[in-house]
Amino acid sequence: MIYVVGMTIERTPVENWATDFDHVDPAWSKDPYPIWDELRTTCPMAHSERYGGTWLPTTHELVHAIAYDTENYTSRGVIVSPEQPEAPAPVGPAPPITSDPPFHQIARRLLLPAFAPKAIERWRPYTVELCARLLDDIEAKVAAGEPVDAAIDYTQHIPVGVIAGMLGLPEEDGPTFRGFIHRIIEDIGEHGNEVAEEDSIDAYLDAAIEAHLADPQDNLLEYLLNVEIEGMKLQPEHVRGTVILLIIAGIDTTWSAIGSMLWHLAQHPDDTRRLVADPGLRPMAIEEFLRAYGPVTMARIVAKDHEQGGRQLTAGDWVLLPFPAANRDPAEFEDADRVIIDRKVNRHSAFGLGIHRCIGSNLARMEMAVALDTWLDRFGSAFSLSDPDAVTWSSGQVRGPRSMPMVIGA
Ligand code: HEM
User: Fold this and answer.
1) Which of 147, 157, 204, 327 has the lowest tally of Cβ within 10 angstroms?
2) Which atom of ligand 1 is nearest to the CA of 98?
3) What is the CATH number of domain 17-408?
4) CA-based diameter of the chain, in Å?
5) Number of the ligand 1 atom closest to the C-alpha atom of 246
6) What is the mean predicted confidence (pLDDT) over 340-348?
7) Among 23-27, 187-191, 296-300, where is mean pLDDT lowest?
8) Cα-flanking dihedrals φ and ψ of residue 74, to 5°?
9) Which DSSP symbol is given to 329?
10) How far, in Å, are 83, 92, 177, 241, 315 from residue 3 at the CA level?
11) Is the C-beta atom of 63 inside 6 A of ligand 1?
12) Which residue, by CA, sits nearest to atom 14 of ligand 1?
């Protein structure tokens, strides 16, 4: 298993965020913004002994500096866990996100054509049809007087369908993918992350690749199995690692971003009414939702002992890269804590900074736009949270609503 660690850790509640933070603490999952705001002014480079030693920069300046520094930091590990990945740099277990230069650029370049704007446009009609189908089911629930959950009934299905389609994997395997994601990035050390070999993502992909080889189709999996670097096909571990990356990076992130967007609108009817009345405002609003509720915090491992933000970092330490905290830094954004759906200047870092900047941003934006248009065109502004306290959030490095009961039509 690639990210799996065989260790169960004792989790104690955080008492001091500057010296003992834990990014899977329930308080962080529920509302991390006050934690980051306070650290930014009191201890911008916080440290915790957890996971063998982890750093947390909270200013835009520090996050930016670390994301661009591939000398002092390696991407060999991007998900903080009690044990570090064994696959060595520069390739790492899930290229290109776990690759360092110079290999990183080669692994990244291979993927770019599949995620270019034109290639993504091909998936728009499918996404429109999928969102409409999900909303038909939601309307049927409303008509039957059944409760609706916008995360469970809507947001979680959208990115699964698209990435499964791109890779030629069955859309119905969505629950299986979400199970892998939960184990790999949410359940860190919680239950030892142990899983029977036959239930592992590796076993799933081995079977999928075998099925594909028996009946090849024109899709991204076929491309990865045949593309060459300097006349040689990719190693099987490279193909598998990249497909795992695309499943994880493609699903959890966008599902979270769409969810946070609807969570905001369900509580801010004035914003919703403006977007219903003026669809031209929606692309700008999507950028603001990405800034304000950026879902993705990545990590690095310190490659060399050095000083950063006035602290002494040691090779082997983990460093969280909270792009969402950088997006709320008042030194970088005016009224950083306010959601301004027509914010004029918005150079947010929700998609990362530096060489690992998100490859899937065109796809993510297309899915967010279709999900928003379809929802608003169907329900207008007639939706709200049934109970804001009933909303649950994912824990760990990708943050978004996982259950979001809604009243529709009220
Ligand atoms: C709103 C949705 C998304 C957000 C907020 C997001 C965010 C990010 C961030 C912050 C990074 C940088 C990681 C780092 O510095 O270590 C990243 C990288 C990446 N993302 Fe996304 N992502 C999203 C959607 C997607 C989608 C839909 C895909 C494709 C299926 C995708 C594929 C990737 C890949 C392959 C990388 C690695 C790029 C590299 O290492 O060069 N992402 N993403």
Assistant:
1) 147
2) 40
3) 1.10.630.10
4) 62
5) 30
6) 97
7) 187-191
8) -115, 150
9) -
10) 9, 11, 15, 10, 20
11) no
12) 356
